[in-house]
Amino acid sequence: MNSLALFRDYLIHEKRYSKNTALAYCKDVELLGKHFTQSDMELTDLDKDDLKDYLGALYSEVTATSLHRKIAAIRHFYLFLKKREIIEENPSLTLTCPKNASTLPGALTKEEMLQLIEFPFKSDEKGLRDRAIIELLYSSGVRVGELVSVRIKDLDKKNRTLNVFGKGKKQRLLPVTKQAVQSIDTYLLKREGNRDPNSIIFMNLKGKGLTERGVQYVLDRIARSAGIFRKVTPHMLRHSFATHFLENGMNLRYLQHLLGHSNLSTTELYTHLSIDHLKNIYNKAHPGSKNNRGK
């Protein structure tokens, strides 16, 4: 009996869920498995970054209610695998369900990104660090886990590239903007403490490496101060990076490399946003569009 069949029986007989709920959960997990089939990855091979990339790219495709169920299904599935000792570590532990809402945040608009980037940061160590974090997240599309692991030696200021070690210690070289490099350089010049090439770039004010939660706190604070009154997460900046590049015509395969996706179908989940963008342009420009009639 395969793991999905075992999971269904577990939900019905041990958790006492209805057959309809059990089948819906199994369907959600089956879709997750199919998504990674191209990469020859089994459900038991996935880690937290695989799950976050998959769910994050679905943000603008589904309602909060639907995503809530998908996350619940995935969490129950991996909890079941862990209980049965089929897996050693549960990759779904850090998944959180969205608040009830009809839609999900998805990508920030270009205007909202400008609000963040052009925010009047203070010129002290903290302000310079926060500016550099936002610049790097948006200019490179790195995961927050990759961001907090970046060391001084990983940044090539001359060639404006960043060496990132992603999932499974896979290495990828990312171009970054001149502005991001300058922001990091200015922060490092101001920063007190270790400037050894092996030192982590982003530190808290106690001289220790900034955590993923620390980066979230930075974004919460800056977004509110910049007048963006919705939850802004590191993944939203990654999502914005992908969406805005696609809207500007970037090749999907190249974007896959930049994002570090092992599966092209994960990157393809971002394309629906670009299609919406193109439809907007089409409807505004087409002479037969309602917007242009009578002109």
Instruction: Output the helix-strand order.
Output: HHHHHHHEEEHHHHHH
Integer-rounded radius of gyration:
21 Å
% residues in beta strands: under 5%
Give the neighbour order of strands across the main sheet.
1-2-3
Structural class comes to mainly alpha
Please name the CATH architecture of the largest domain: Orthogonal Bundle
Q: What is the CATH superfamily classification of the largest domain?
A: Intergrase catalytic core
| CATH class category name of the largest domain | Mainly Alpha
Q: Tally the structural domains.
A: 2
Helix amount, in percent? 40-55%
Low-confidence stretches: 100-105
- The DSSP helix count reads 13
> For the residues shown, what is the average pLDDT?
83
Task: Compose a concise summary of this entry.
The chain has 295 residues and is mostly helical.
Task: Please characterize this protein's 3D structure.
By secondary structure, the protein is mainly alpha-helical. The chain folds into two domains: 81 residues; 165 residues, Orthogonal Bundle (hpI Integrase, Chain A). The protein contains 13 helices and three strands, in the order H-H-H-H-H-H-H-E-E-E-H-H-H-H-H-H. Helix 6 runs antiparallel to helix 8. The radius of gyration is 21 Å and the shape is elongated.
Which characteristics define this entry?
single chain, 295 residues, mainly alpha, hpI Integrase, Chain A
Provide the fold topology.
Elements: H1 3-14, H2 19-35, H3 48-57, H4 64-83, H5 110-117, H6 125-140, H7 144-147, E1 155-156, E2 161-165, E3 171-175, H8 178-190, H9 212-225, H10 234-247, H11 252-259, H12 264-268, H13 271-285
Antiparallel strand pairs: 1-2, 2-3
Helix pairs in contact: 1-2, 2-4, 6-8, 6-10, 10-13
